Amino acid sequence: MSDLETTIDTYLEAYGEADPARRAELTARSWSEEGRLSDPPMEARGHADLDAMFAAVQSQFPGHTFRRTSAVDAHHGVARYGWDLVGPDGTVAVAGMDVAVPGDDGRLVRVAGFFGDLPPRAD
């Protein structure tokens, strides 16, 4: 597994972690201090905002965890990968993909998340 894959998996683990102390530790390992995460309904900048965003998702989806569903496809400092938000019974609540930019130290500086499949082209 590459360093970037490990960082992304650590981030996804943080997103699904219910324990605040463990979530903070995982976030610090995977995100730069000023990292920015944008998902369709919300945005976070910095560790405190990320923690609040992760906690909000945990309150909406108790017991759910994130899992990466694809390889990490990366080039020229940008990566993409698929993920699922999985319930305790194995049901996928939400699926999507992220586009991520790691910083010089390997931690994430920017992630943009997208939910569901790509929309069809409108001609």
Automatic annotation (TrEMBL):
This is Nuclear transport factor 2 family protein. It comes from the Bacteria. Residues 10-110 form the SnoaL-like domain. It comes from Iamia majanohamensis. InterPro entries: NTF2-like_dom_sf, SnoaL-like.
